[in-house]
Amino acid sequence: MRAALALAVGLLPLAAWAQETALDRDPAPFRLVPAARGTAVRPRPGKVEEGATALRWLASVQGEDGGWASPDGRRDVATTALALLAFTANRCTQRFGSFKRHVDAGLRWLLRAQQEDGWLGPAEADPLAILDHALATRALCDALLRSHDRPLLLAPARAAVARLLAARAPDGGFGLSRPGAASNALCTAYGLLALEAAAGAGLAAPPEVMADLARALDGFGDDAGEAGMFAPGDALSVALDDPDPPRVPLLVAAVAAARAIAVAGDDPRLAAHAARLAPPDGLQDEPAYYHLGLRAERAAGTLTRDRARAWFIATLALQEPDGGFRAAGLWGAIAGRVGASAECALALEVYFDHDLERSQER
Q1: Is the dihedral of CA 340, 80, 136, 349 positive or negative?
Q2: What is the pTM of this model?
Q3: Per-block average pLDDT, block size 10, for the chain (362 residues)?
Q4: Which of 87, 199, 323, 359 is geometrically suited to a Cys-Cys bond with 204, CB 3.0 to 4.6 A?
């Protein structure tokens, strides 16, 4: 009798979730399609400790107000979102894990930064506005997915996803800023990473939106190589002192990682993009490449043991004695050591997940 009662009580949150994410309760201009809800994600034994030094460093540099500061003070939303993603990817939420106090403070900082219409980050005319909002949306959705803290996160996450969908470029992708900006490969990749987390949290974008995003990706990363990533004088080029070294490899990784999310079923172009990824040890200064490249190769099924090890070694080459990572590459330029450390932590999480998956298959 007691066991039956416990089971019934345990099922109540499932029913509540289904009701709260029903389409007829969605006030957003875009209809958000609920995805299947899984069980709460708790830390796996030993998993957090694998990347504990990076997480401890991130915790040590968190601001008293709960946020993480960017070098110029203009990209604090993106910087805070990246730091939060490093924690949640390693199964640390505001409810579980050794850093739940830090995650809770960071999430509440992000929620205070959210505007009434759901937008996160600087004004939409800001050159990097979409990147800020996409990262913050992903952080809220990933925390919701892993913690199931609906009272704190469901409404803000839903509003953020709706605003992200409304900010798409005319061709269906995501541009550097809106309104009217042409799609950019990197912005589209980070937008799709946010939508992937949203789908996991029960806030999936409509199929036709994903189809439009897949079509937008068809214009990036073919023989032209650099199309859709950098243009002379654009915001990404200005943010990076020297955008040339990571340009083509980062573009290919971004497009491949994005295709793995946007394109349903077998995608021969995903395999083709993954095959073009440069060896990770040939690009020692781009954490975003390590993160997106690992995701792309894993999704394409081309991540061999030796290749995974190469990504792992290249990522760790950026780690400093204090546990953080050197301010390198795209996010090092935009969000300093916090941004680079977060991207490296995300890359390591993909590596560890893949390694665990392979060990379970053996």
Answers
A1: positive
A2: 0.83
A3: 39 33 33 38 43 88 96 91 94 90 97 95 80 96 95 97 92 76 82 94 93 84 47 52 56 83 81 80 77 90 89 90 90 92 92 72 57
A4: 199
How many Å apart are CA 320 and CA 341, to the nearest integer?
Answer: 10
Where exactly are the structural domains of the chain?
53-361
pLDDT tens string 266-306:
788 888 878 878 777 656 688 988 999 999 999 888 888 88
Q: How far is 102 from 362, CA to CA, in rounded Å?
A: 37
CB 270 within 8 A of CB 300: yes
CA distance 171 to 17: 34
Look at the block and give the residue holding tokens 């604090």. Answer: 76
What are the DSSP calls for 146-212, one per residue?
HH--HHHHHHHHHHHHHHHHHT--TTSS-BSSTTTPPB-HHHHHHHHHHHHHHHHTT-BPPHHHHHH
Read off φ and ψ for residue 347, nearest 5 degrees: -65, -45
| Length reported for the chain | 362
Per-residue model confidence as pLDDT tens digits over 190-226: 999 999 999 999 999 999 999 999 888 887 754 444 4
Residue showing tokens 């690009």: 283
Distance of alpha carbon 321 from alpha carbon 233, whole angstroms: 36
Out of 1.50.10.20, 2.10.70.10, 3.40.50.300, 3.30.1330.10, select the CATH number for domain 53-361. Answer: 1.50.10.20
- Report the 10 Å Cβ neighbour count for 294: 29
- State the DSSP string of 259-282: HHHHS-S--HHHHHHHHTPPPGGG
Sign of the CA dihedral running 159, 331, 348, 220: positive
